[in-house]
Design a protein that fits this description.
This protein is an all-alpha fold. About 75% of the residues lie in helices and about 0% in strands. It folds into two domains: about 50 residues; about 120 residues, Four Helix Bundle (Hemerythrin (Met), subunit A) (Up-down Bundle), CATH 1.20.120. The longest helix is centred in the N-terminal third of the chain and has 32 residues.
């Protein structure tokens, strides 16, 4: 029991030190970050001046409402952009599932070819190609036009673009009635392999290097 109490006391001291460190040289009340004095609100200026009249008070109120409206609009804009940036992880699951299932179903087609199985592969390729384009698009929205990053980031970025391009090509072959089954398989199976690599690289970025503890 004593050791447990000591542990929680040590944890509380550690968290308090971390909070103090996070604030750093931040000064409250009369100053902002960097020693710049905080500007009083317009309403405070109006009340601080002796003999202020109704017109001054009304002007201060209008000024405060304008500032608050601008802040609300800016926060709403940042919220929309933030939602768009966070959609990349949600969009990657569809092309992964559809392309992998299409490759698996194509193995059944190779063992016993039926129109139903071929149609199922075709539909999943169409969905995987569309999902691959969306995932790549939201990936660029997530990072912006940024071409930096380490080896893992570079492989994840350009491997995703390659999957999107190959997916479109596979969809085009599947759409054509005279499309070669061999050409379709030459694209579909490599796409499935690239998706496994892509998922691993995404996990490395999201959870840290060697996230599988291999």
């Amino acid at each position: 029991m004593t050791s447990v109490l000591r542990f929680f006391a040590s944890l509380a001291l550690f968290l308090s030190a971390m909070v103090a460190f996070a604030h750093g040289d931040e000064k409250h009340g009369g100053e902002k970050h960097g020693g710049e004095e905080a500007r009083p609100a317009a309403s405070e200026v109006a009340h601080a001046q002796p003999g202020h009249d109704i017109e001054a008070t009304g002007t201060a109120a209008i000024s405060n409402e304008a500032v608050e409206g601008h802040d609300d609009e800016q926060a709403q804009s940042e919220g929309i952009i933030g939602v768009l940036k966070s959609l990349h992880p949600a969009t990657v699951h569809f092309p992964i599932a559809l392309f992998l299932m299409a490759a698996l179903t194509e193995l059944f087609v190779m063992s016993h070819r039926t129109p139903e199985r071929e149609a199922a592969v075709r539909i999943m390729i169409f969905g995987g190609a569309a999902g691959g384009v969306l995932a790549a698009l939201f990936g660029w929205i997530h990072t912006g036009l940024w071409f930096g990053g380490d080896f893992v980031m570079q492989v994840h970025r350009w491997n995703g673009m390659l999957i999107a391009v190959l997916g479109i090509a596979a969809a085009w072959i599947a759409y054509r009635a005279s499309g070669s089954r061999a050409a379709l398989r030459a694209l579909l199976f490599p796409i499935a392999a690239l998706l496994i690599v892509q998922g691993f690289m995404g996990g490395e970025l999201a959870h840290g290097l060697n996230h599988l503890k291999l």
